[in-house]
Amino acid sequence: MEPRPSLWMRAVAVCRAELRHLTTIHPTDRPWELPVGAAIATGLPLFIGAFFDRLDFGLASSLGGLCFMYLPATALSHRMVMQMACAFGLIACYALGVTSQFVPFLAVPVLTFAAILVTMVCRFYGVGMPGSLFFVMVAAIGADLPVTALEVPARVGLVAMGAVLACLIGFLYSIHVLRRRAPHQPPPPTASFDFVVFDSVVIGLCVGLSVAVARGLGAEQAYWVPVSCLAVIQGASLRAVWTKKLQRILGTSAGLLLTWGLFLLPLGPWTIALTMTVLIFIIETMVVRHYGLAVMFITPLTILLAEATTMGQGPAADLMQARLFDTVLGAFVGLLGGIALHSPRFRGAAGGAMRRLIPARFRGGSAPEPAADTGTDLAARGE
Predict the structure, then answer these.
(1) Are 124 and 196 in contact (CB under 8 A)?
(2) How far apart are CA 129 and CA 218, in angstroms?
(3) How confident is the model at residue 370 (pLDDT cuts 50, 70, 90)?
(4) Rounded to an integer, what distance in angstroms lies between the CA atom of residue 265 and that of residue 321?
């Protein structure tokens, strides 16, 4: 018999395997025009806002531009229907978030409801990654946006204008790329009860729990907590959830250092617009290759999206510390939710109880096997 490996050797093997998971670069055939289109869709509103000296308007419109990220690799007709549906979803989530702040105790249930609903819709219709992430993010940003009741229609309208612009850019991009690439037609998703309903409810409750804990601990503008929670819990396996948790924390830590450096620069409306446009291009180039490296640039982008107009009003160290705390808290709750989702015992107990609450005509079969997690759904977003 071969000698049993020592505890030290097993620890080294585990560390090497962990390091391999964290540093793996995934191949992709994504066309270079896609990151360019994403940068234009979300960056152009920023330059328009800078031109009129209303960067806050440009930031609101750029949130609507995020619907470009949901452009699938299908035929033109399906592309545009999907993108316009996602545009409507972003507008609705932002409207829900921005109106919830006027009744403070509604923020948690509104974000929980939004996370459950959009996750169900994304899974039922086979929407690829980032899935419900951006919908929850714009709702969370809206919930922390300091506006008056009379400003709400204008803010929602700005998001809608950015979404319409992104749909136009998506249409032009699709015409161009479909001349060189045949459309991909994925099989229709299996809308099982476990995959669509059970998982969505658990994910939404974890998102709501993360927001409730953050607010209970006195966190201000804790929009980063539900985003971190949702990004981690969406892993296709427990291994993917754990890897995403580590990548999220490490990537955010490095991203906060990058944000600190950006805050030391004399940023004005034009330079902020240019910086955010470059960040979007880098993110869309990197996210299909390595999630942790993408998070390094997602961190300053999200901070600028939410707080670019208030830069310099407080110590940068306080902002960095708050965002790191939000990331750790959200990732921890997301990890707990991921453990629950991938626990057969929990699924059997909670799923059985949930099924008894659902009319029989709405129930499906068992959940399909999820695809291997590569940081994004290449079939849906990689052209």
Answers:
(1) yes
(2) 31
(3) very low
(4) 19
